[in-house]
Write a structure and sequence with these properties.
- The protein has about 400 residues and is of the alpha/beta class.
- Helices cover about 35% and strands about 15% of the residues.
- It is built from 12 helices and 13 strands.
- It is globular.
């Protein structure tokens, strides 16, 4: 276990756990991250145990899932009773959207450039007479919180917003956001999938009301395993939309007459969980915690921002047009373009060179984690340069 806050030591240790770094320069963490060694090993062990022994190891699996709940609480700065383990971000946001006590004429405020996971659940409330008020966002991704105020009125119940923009990487000022929303009498629902695991957050200190994030991006987990935070103050307000045996107190008594729900966020989980996915995510979260991801201005965030600065410098020197948020709003995501660029083919060429990137909204998107290093960055720049030399663009 790593306890030092020394950035190089932590990131070197993290890189050692990322087998992908032996073959690829991986810059696609804003899409789906590769698994650390231990997380992959847990999946293999689960498959072996389940194939040879059925549910004989079930109690151990269950304990490890509860370890994830505990570690997720450490990651967020909350009580583990405020953590529900969910399938993905959409499920978590949907639980908030569908479980909230809406009245006809209420509204929810959402940025216009949100990923569909944080738009569709709110628009689906039209059948209940709930209005979705979308406020415009600059092409740069900058969220003007002063402009946000103009869209909040007396009927606004929730402001639903991403911590980090999935295309531009713009990271909002959470302190200012929560202050504005709470002063107006509304609640904050945060889509944290593009920030959690990369940057520290303390939901209790900030006053965030709800938060959802799948684990398959910056938390280095699998798809289909995520977390939902519900502040304890809202536990009775947010009704479970789908209950099951595991929503009950003393759920493992399997009492057919039981009706009393758990007095914690686990009441939202319903039935059986994705054991293997949660166990793998648990290993990844523990690794990140060991490397200090939960520490304010800690080594994970520091290394990510150092990588972003180096990427910006080298790509600018190579005459790419780099789109990057201002200091204080940067994340692990940046985008780039060049005149006449065929970005889909450029992505395919880079993949043939062992460099993994994405294309989003007509741009190359590069998303770097803390374990990436200068060698990875050089491979990326070289692959892009080689593509342009070959294609004359």
């Amino acid at each position: 276990m790593i306890h030092s806050s020394n950035t190089p030591q932590n990131t070197v240790y993290l890189r050692q756990q990322m087998q992908v770094s032996q073959e690829l320069a991986y810059f696609d963490h804003a899409a789906v991250a590769p698994l650390p060694r231990q997380s992959a090993l847990v999946i293999c062990q689960f498959a072996e145990q389940a194939s040879r022994g059925g549910d004989v190891a079930w109690l151990d699996w269950s304990k490890r899932v509860e370890d994830l709940r505990r570690d997720s609480a450490t990651l967020l700065g909350c009580s583990q009773d405020e953590i529900a383990l969910v399938a993905n971000t959409s499920t978590g946001i949907g639980m908030v959207a569908e479980g909230f006590p809406w009245r006809p004429g209420d509204n929810v405020v959402v940025p216009a450039n949100e990923f569909p996971a944080n738009k569709v659940p709110w628009h689906n409330l039209a059948r209940l007479g709930v209005e979705v008020r979308e406020f415009p966002v600059e092409p740069s991704g900058e969220v003007d919180l002063a402009a946000l105020k103009q869209f909040i009125n007396a009927r606004t119940r929730i402001v639903a917003i991403s911590w980090v923009g999935f295309v531009t990487g713009y990271r909002i000022d959470l302190v200012q956001l929560v202050e504005i929303v709470h002063r107006a009498g509304a609640l904050v629902c945060l889509d944290a999938i593009q920030g959690l695991g990369a940057f520290s957050i303390n939901v209790k200190q900030l006053g965030v009301d709800f938060l959802a994030a799948d684990g398959h991006k910056w938390m280095l987990g699998t798809e289909g395993a995520g977390i939902l935070f519900v502040d304890a103050a809202h536990l009775e307000r947010l009704q479970p939309i789908m209950v099951g045996w595991n929503s009950l107190e003393d759920s493992f008594q399997f009492n057919p007459s039981a009706t009393k729900l758990r007095r914690c966020a686990a009441r939202y989980e319903g039935g059986a969980t994705n054991m293997v996915g949660m166990m793998a995510l648990g290993e990844s979260v523990r690794l990140l915690l060991d490397c200090g991801t939960h520490l304010e201005n800690g080594p994970i965030a520091s290394s990510i921002l150092t990588n972003v600065d180096l990427l910006h410098e080298k790509l600018t020197e190579a005459r790419y047009c780099v789109q990057l948020p201002a200091d204080g709003h940067r994340s692990g995501i940046m985008t780039l373009t060049w005149p006449g660029g065929d970005y889909s083919n450029a992505r395919k060429f880079c993949l043939s060179q062992g460099v993994v990137i994405s294309v989003r909204s007509g741009r190359i998107r590069v998303s770097t984690h803390a374990y990436n290093d200068a060698h990875d960055i050089d491979r990326l720049v070289r692959a892009l340069n080689d593509y342009r030399k070959i294609h004359g663009k």
